[in-house]
Amino acid sequence: MTGHGAGQADPPGVVFEWLQLQRRRVSVKSRLGEKLAFIHRHWDGLQTFLRDGRVEIDSNSV
Questions:
Q1: Residues 11-59 pLDDT 10s
Q2: Does residue 1 lie within any of the structural domains?
Q3: Inside any domain, residue 39
Q4: Number of domains observed in the structure of the chain
Q5: What is the pLDDT of residue 8?
Q6: By the number of CB atoms within 10 A of the CB, which of 1, 46, 57, 60 ranks highest?
């Protein structure tokens, strides 16, 4: 991702790493585990939404 100086972390990358860590720590059967799995499944779409303001956020497939 552009706009970050040398040695600075990529914010989406840091969040994704945190998400992966939490998914390993939390039971997938818990409500939190289900929510983390949902975020993980829709990560690419979330990134597209954050990069391009024209994209509407929607988790329903067409």
A1: 788 989 999 999 999 999 999 999 999 989 989 988 888 888 888 877 6
A2: no
A3: yes
A4: 1
A5: 62
A6: 46
Q: Say how far apart CA 4 and CA 59 lie, in whole Å.
A: 29
Longest alpha-carbon distance in the chain: 40
pLDDT score recorded for residue 46: 86
Residues contacting residue 26 through CB under 8 Å, at least 6 positions apart: 32, 33, 36
**Residue 34 · residue 28 · CB < 8 Å:** yes
- Cβ atoms of residues 15 and 43 within 8 Å: no
pLDDT at 61: 62
| Separation between Cα atoms, residue 38 and residue 8, nearest integer Å | 28
Interatomic CA distance for residues 51 and 34, integer angstroms = 25
Residues recorded for the chain: 62
